[in-house]
Amino acid sequence: MTIKLYENDAYIKEFEATVLSCEECKNGYAVVLDKTAFFPEGGGQQADKGYINGLEVLDVQIKDEVITHTLKESVTVGETVKCELDWDTRFARMQSHTGEHLVSGIINTLFSYDNLGFHMSEKTLTLDPSGILSDEDIKKVELIANKAIYENREITAYYPEEQELKNLSYRSKLDLESGVRLVTIDGYDTCACCAPHVHRTGEIGLVKIIDYIQYKGGMRLTMVCGINAFMDYSTLCDNTKELMHALSSPREKVNEFVLKDHETVGTLKAEINRLNAELSKANLEILTKDNVVLGFTKGASFDDMRALVNETTDKSELVAFFSEGENGDFSYVVASSTLDVRDKVKELNLSFNGKGGGRPNYAQGKIIADKESIINFF
Q: Best label site of 11, 140, 269, 344, fewest CB within 10 Å?
């Protein structure tokens, strides 16, 4: 068994340990120490980063209570090595993980929902309550969590005796009977967990739920905590300032100005599309021969061409409309009310280095060709 220094002191940044084994592996060398403060990957949290004798720790895994560190180069068995954690990353993860416990505990207390899933990335984390929360519910949970942070409640982690464990109420994803490490946030939560946590809620700094969706009968909440929440807020502030200057808007009305401009842009786009459709129709050149109708125009969208085709399909066996682009290419729509056009479209694409396809009576795509070559093809 590897002695887990992080269980008794989550704030160890540097330590010395003895190398018990060093074996070559797929990605470098698998190194086992007699003790470690590096937290191994597990429970939705990534492995700690850092250095052993100046060598970057690429990965940390645990199996049968033995923790293995992956290094790019070997170290000598029996030697004492100096180990250093990437403390900024570790502390940010402690803030995030403790913040997740706090929020999950509050949700469990208020709504009796369990947290069915947890995953932490470098900047955000997700948790999956087992039931549905309304917008107001989520705001309430978030407010209580941040009040708990201001209260600076104590956080403890320990292994209770088996008899004590039987009499305790705690959250756990697994049905454990022994070897349970409990992390308790005074007044808010007790949860089985093997990860390092901050000592007091004040160190979490801030909790912000930035997104949420319904997921597998419950919810998936995305949140940021601590330094990650601060960085997220800083980014939002910078973005807001840019919008304020661009829209000449006061800070508190940026959303109103953006929505108003968005509505205006939508109206203008619709008008542009309408005018383009009229222009395409006005510039349309129609060629008809042997129950085949060809149409040529410029700047028409697929929607425009579909509308033109729909007006013509019932008047001929095969209708093909082409819109010339700026680079000498043509967008096309081919349709028929009586024929399967797919073989013809396949031949068209092969002849003119094109791409496209569709249903038996309708297809669309693009080709590289000139007008005369297209007419000759048909």
A: 269
